[in-house]
Amino acid sequence: MGDQYALEAHGLVKIFSGQRVVQGVDIAVPKGAIYGVLGPNGAGKTTTLRMLLGIIEPDGGTRTLLGNAYPRDISDRVGYLPEERGLYPGMKAKEAIAFMGALRGLDWKTGRERAAVMLEEAGLGHAIDSKIKKLSKGMAQFVQLLGSVVHEPEFLVLDEPFSGLDPVNQERLEALVIKERDRGATILFSTHVMAHAERLCDRLAIIAGGRRRFEGTVADARALLPMQVHYTPHHDGAGLKALLPADAQREGEEWRFTMPDEGVETLLVRLIEAGHGISGLSIERPSLHDAFVKIVGREAAEEME
Amino acid sequence: MSNLTRMVRDTATVARRDFFAMVGTPTFLLFLLAPLLMIGFGAVGGVGGAMVGKSADAKERIYAIVDGATAQRFMAVDKQLRPLFSGDARPPELEIESPAADPAAQAKTLLKQDKHDVPAVLYGSLAQPQILQRNKTSRSARYLAQIAEQVVREQTDGLTGPLSKPDFVQIARQGSSIGGKSATGFFAVTALFVLTLMLSGQTVGTMAEERSNKVIEILAASVRLESVFLGKLIGMYGVAMVFIAFWGTLALLVGSFLPPDTLARMAAMRPAIGLPAFFALFFLYFTMAYLLLGTVFLGVGAQASTPREIQMLSLPITIFQMAMLGLASASVAVPDQPVALIAEIFPFSSPFAMLAYGARSASWWPHLLAIGWQLLWVALSITIGARLFRRGVLQSAGPKFRWKALLGRT
Lengths: 305, 410
Description:
- The complex is a heterodimer.
- Chain A has helices at 45-53, 93-103, 108-121, 137-149, 167-183, 194-200, 218-222, 240-243, 265-273, 288-296, 298-304; strands spanning 5-16, 19-30, 34-38, 60-65, 78-81, 155-159, 186-191, 203-208, 211-216, 228-232, 249-251, 254-258, 280-284.
- By secondary structure, chain A is α/β, with parallel strands linked by helices.
- In chain A, the strands form three sheets. In chain A, strands 5-6-7-3-8-9 form a six-stranded mixed β-sheet, with helices on both faces.
- The longest helix of chain B has 33 residues, at 26-58.
- Chain B is built from 16 helices and four strands.
- A four-stranded mixed β-sheet of chain B has the order 2-1-3-4, with helices on both faces.
- Chain B has helices at 3-23, 26-58, 68-81, 103-112, 139-157, 178-200, 206-212, 215-222, 225-255, 260-267, 275-303, 307-333, 338-345, 350-360, 365-392, 403-407; strands at residues 60-65, 93-97, 117-123, 130-133.
- By secondary structure, chain B is mostly helical.
- Chain B folds into two domains: 3-34 and 176-407, no CATH class; 60-157, D-Maltodextrin-Binding Protein, domain 2 (3-Layer(aba) Sandwich), CATH 3.40.190.
- Classes of the chains: A alpha/beta, B mainly alpha.
- Chain A binds chain B through residues 16, 50, 53-57, 70, 72-76, 78, 80, 82, 84-91, 99-100, 102-105, 144, 147, and chain B through 1, 3, 6, 9-10, 13-14, 17, 21, 25, 209-210, 213-224, 390, 394-399, 402, 405, 410.
């Protein structure tokens, strides 16, 4: 096991009612990284996260969290925001955060003090002494998020943290994730929102059908697909198609094709010499979404949208 | 920090949350004062019943149709015998009537009168009195016969005063009587059962809260399920202690106002092990009974996912408790029979049966053994409950038990 990894898992398997919902997933999360787990619904993301945290035991495979084979033994060093949010409705926001800290070994007094500061910083100062049942869903969700980091964990697991949050709170959450990373924490989160993953993740894994289909950086994922060229000729005319690569497709005035292996320079010279000229030209890197579609298939990708 | 210390810390965190969540709500006041309603209804019913009974007693009369000097002796003997009877055994007031022309008809008229209830009427010669009675084995009729017998004896021998003048010397019992020990045992077992029935049953629905509001995921990720179970149990036990402290204090205050003869009767119910030790045992065995039964209820209730399922589980739980009371009561009734030993050993009836044992035996060591045995079962029940919860609700086998991990450091 390398010291550079906060979490390593090999061949994780989970079987529910005879069905293998996770089929040998490998994950290695470098220390200090923001690591995303992407996948369509039912891909096994949550089950994988729960196994990594020791909430449920795997039926096969091994995992090492912060150097320990039994994640529950070091739960004080870990923070967790589950997909199914849950707080005691009768508790005050400050108490709820302090309680979650106390479960992770933080004394109540410190927990309350930190909770008050964190709520103020998050713009929820007015809700410090409000009961959870009086808060909006988004606010309650944010309270739970603060509860998962109040004890300053070394490793933070967020399961679909952005779901159910309005754009303002999504922005707050992104800021919080970055702040936690800057503090030195390693963050593992699952999401189905590509934009968040693209903006935040240092590395990511794509899971589908209980298997890991991809592991690497966002750039690595994008590199799975060639760049796309968008070309608009100045003079459209006979013979243009013959000069373009075989996969060129016309969409209105514009032609789209895959970037040739040798680049576009030679092609552009030929097009100019043939008198077609260049009215418009752009080269686009494929998005993470495009890469995702390639990896898991269009049908699974559409499920996430 | 050792894992054991951490487990204690986690348990305390969960217990604290549950305790304050329960005690800090207006609902708790209702829970605390619920017995007041029971006592109130009981008192109203009891007072009403007693008034009806007393009123009926006041309307009862027995009659003796006798004349002159005999009537005076009859009254004197009645005055002499009457103090021997107390409470419900006391005969109805005696009325003397002078004989009319037809005493038999007069007696029947008195028996049938509407003014009083008349269970018996005596008439005719005292040597062979005729006694009309309402019931075949009327005690009032036998009482009239006994007065007649006494009056005839006095008249026959010509003696009217007491011939024997006894001195009464009181020597108080040092220990408690066999009957007193048995009564103490039964009373204590019943009290322990009622308390456990009322309070440990509360644990059945406590996991439902975490399941319905999804907090269970937070708890399961942060602490061991055994800590969650034990914490919930201890939290609810704390609530039970508040309840007992409140009602115990109230009972002591009320007890100080009880009539002296009632207090004297209660003093006769001294347990063999001594009163202070018995109170300590009562507290210890309540704790054990609460933890043992509470763990079972918590474990069973944790499997339920809806209030309807919890309601459905209440019946088998109550039947289980009644079975434990039956077993423990048998150990009080027949302490020398094997059933008593079974009740003392079977972990879920053991606290009740061992409390009864404390009432009849002064030995200490069996209690130490029993408490150790019961604690072992508390631990076992919590472990089994947590594992069942993990399998049934979280759908996962638990991690392997590791003594090294429990005693090791993180």
